[in-house]
Amino acid sequence: MPVPLFDTETPRLPLRADLRSAVHRVLDAGRFVLGPEVQAFEREWAAYLGAAHAIGVANGTEAITIALRALGVGPGDEVVVPSFTFWASAEAIPHTGATPVFCDIDPETFCVTPETVKAAMTPRTKAVIVVHLFGNVAPVAEIEALGVPVLEDAAQAAGSIGPAGRPGALGTVATFSFYPSKNLGAFGDGGAITTRDDDVAQRVRTLRFHGSADKKDYSMVGYNSRLDELQAAILRVQLPELDRWAQARVEAGDRYEQALDGLVGLPRATPGARPAWHLYVVRHPDPDALQAALTERGVACAPYYRRPIHEQPPMRSYAPAHDLPGTAEAARTHLAIPMSAALRAEQVDEVAAAVRDAGLVRPHQ
Ligand SMILES: *Cc1c(COP(=O)(O)O)cnc(C)c1O
After folding, report:
1. Which top CATH class is 242-357?
2. Residue whose CA is closest, atom 2 of ligand 1?
3. CB under 6 Å to ligand 1: residues?
């Protein structure tokens, strides 16, 4: 039986009737922007995370730009960001006028560390973007202890738990994406910003609404960036399932860990973290050969960030003068294998058998 890379359909099947009635509720109410569904979702999302404030925005990319602006980031400032992440983590920075400064990661966790961040900091560092990549939980408190505000890019970490709480409630401000394939997905684009800081929350609310409270007086040049009522209603139906879906991802990861030990480099959860793996990403010295062997067996797999961000043409002018060895290793060796809230134990075993039967050289670790 073929195993898909991810499956967003199956977990939602039992919710179809509730999703339909949520959509009808919004159609009947006739309010589509900044109405009661968004307000309710913002309350429920903040409560779920243990954050003081949640503010819905249009997507996870604008969420980062707006959150940086709310922190006061602008021209002349530097923002430290990993290079091994989805492009949007860094793309959001030049829109504020600030300069991205790329830092390295630990290739076993795929996350930044206090050491890699510190190495990239200068007196101009205004904020650090920490990415909870693939659902792992980056060490936010240790990085904030360096004396700089942390923005958590938690787009891939809905449902994960860290030693000090959930991603989204660990740093000064955090951003989420509800793109359909994320751990909590809308039926279109959507995003949110969470924060413990009342002033940051107020600035985010103003920035998402053209820099205004009433579209009469304007205090900032802002954005038109809102989560809409339909998406909020759809997210509200799914939020009560998120912990169960996260648990299924945790269990699939645990089963992979048993089955694949010694065959590939396994993703290592950071100390005390329970990652709701968004993607399950292994490392292998010959990922292309592994991909060919798995594809042959009907097991879907894919590299995601083969060329790190600082090597992409629009960001080359920001590339650091020195190497980023952890980034280079992760970029060269990583391969995502199937993961979803619907991944069954037999499917994990099928994937593991396909990896074993590929008979490729063992990784050095
Ligand atoms: C998906 C994603 C984003 C961007 O979210 P969009 O809603 O697609 O704009 C940002 N950062 C990371 C790490 C992501 O995975």
Report:
1. alpha beta
2. 155
3. 59-61, 85-86, 88-89, 131, 153, 155-156, 177, 179, 189, 191
